[in-house]
């Protein structure tokens, strides 16, 4: 990622921090389907931003590795984890995912979440980090029900990409209104 892009993300996270407190939230794709979440174990969140999902998972007992390139995002995530009493279960990792999933996050993980960040070059690596029975939860911007754009998945992208990965079973795939979500499980 370019320095300018990183500074843009830092500025965005800093502005949100200044605007008030932040909640811990389940991954978008799991709302209404929380029964799919494993009982506990290790979790990885890619592009965790301000940590809402990472800390939500930690509150449910997961030991979470949360990766982002933005120092401001990670600072907000650290503060949220501490405020939520889950600081000892969240490990924040500063890394540029353009270089792949960091070597310090080898897994295996019982849950891998990536939402509102799309890099198809990471799809295989995300699936490879799953433990047997582990759950993958992905949400991206999509051209389905919206205009195509450089950061948007083409309709069907998630189902085609993850459906082609051996040992992965797609549990659900939804797209429309400019978003696409996929939940899959490692057999
Ligand atoms: C739209 S935010 C989503 C944050 C969080 N996943 C959520 O759902 O609220 C996108 C995040 O991706 C991070 N990001 C963008 N490009 C990245 C990269 N190459 N490596 C690591 N993080 C990146 C940004 O810093 C930002 O926190």
UniProtKB/TrEMBL annotation:
Q: Which GO terms describe its molecular function?
A: methyltransferase activity
Domain of life from the UniProt record = Bacteria
The record ties this protein, via Gene3D superfamilies, to:
Vaccinia Virus protein VP39
Its BP terms in the Gene Ontology are: methylation
Question: What UniProt keywords are attached to this protein's entry?
Answer: Methyltransferase, S-adenosyl-L-methionine, Transferase
- Please report the stretch or stretches of sequence annotated as the Methyltransferase domain: 44-134
Pfam families according to UniProt: Methyltransf_25
Which PANTHER family does the annotation name? METHYLTRANSFERASE, UBIQUINONE BIOSYNTHESIS O-METHYLTRANSFERASE, MITOCHONDRIAL
| Name of the protein | Class I SAM-dependent methyltransferase
């Amino acid at each position: 990622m370019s320095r300018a892009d990183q500074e843009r993300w830092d500025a965005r996270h800093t502005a949100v921090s200044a605007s008030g407190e932040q909640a811990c939230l389940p991954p978008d794709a799991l709302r209404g389907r929380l029964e799919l979440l494993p009982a506990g174990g290790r979790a990885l969140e890619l592009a965790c931003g301000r940590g809402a999902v990472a800390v939500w998972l930690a509150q449910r007992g997961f030991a979470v590795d949360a990766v982002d390139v933005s120092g401001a995002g990670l600072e907000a995530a650290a503060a949220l984890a501490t405020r939520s009493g889950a600081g000892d279960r969240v490990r924040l990792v500063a890394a540029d995912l353009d270089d792949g999933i960091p070597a310090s996050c080898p897994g295996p993980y019982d849950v891998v979440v990536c939402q509102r960040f799309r890099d198809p070059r990471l799809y295989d690596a995300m699936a490879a980090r799953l433990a047997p029975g582990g759950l993958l939860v992905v949400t991206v911007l999509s051209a389905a029900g919206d205009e195509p754009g450089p950061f948007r998945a083409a309709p069907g992208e998630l189902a085609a990409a993850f459906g082609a990965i051996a040992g992965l079973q797609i549990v659900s795939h939804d797209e429309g209104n400019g978003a696409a979500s996929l939940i899959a499980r490692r057999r």
